[in-house]
User: What shape does this take?
Amino acid sequence: MRIGLLSDSHDRVDAIAQFAARFADAGVGMVLHCGDYCAPFSLAPIQAHHLALVGVFGRNDGDPEALRAVAMSGMGSELFEAPHSFELLGRRILLVHDLSDALERSIEAHDIVVHGCTHREEMKTRGATLLVNPGEACGWLHGAPSAAILDLDSRRVEILKLAGPEWSRR
Assistant: This one.
């Protein structure tokens, strides 16, 4: 199964729409979002591509109840307080906005940890645990918007970037 990874989208709907389209074209079955959507309308592109969403709230999500209501109106979508632990196809996954909000022993108890907050893409391992930060879907701080696709079987991660002058910092 291929999973789309997003974080720190901060209302940049045009970038979210581009990533949702790329996810759909790549056969992604689900999107994991690490928070900082900001406003409920930022979920619309994910829903428009009929992608299931599991997400956690970040520090800049102004109306969590409205976000949760919009998410639940989509097919197979739900938002949780961070950290959120769940199992998917035999893999234990931890979804958190800020990695420092997860205890070390909790991190090590998971096969995959997906986090955001820093706005920088990163992949590393701690023991048998794969840690992935897809970077900033908004591109506001560090240039081009970024996201990732995770192959759940192989644990291979592909970083996606939106290139061109229209995606440079504004």
The first strand starts at residue 2 and ends at 6.
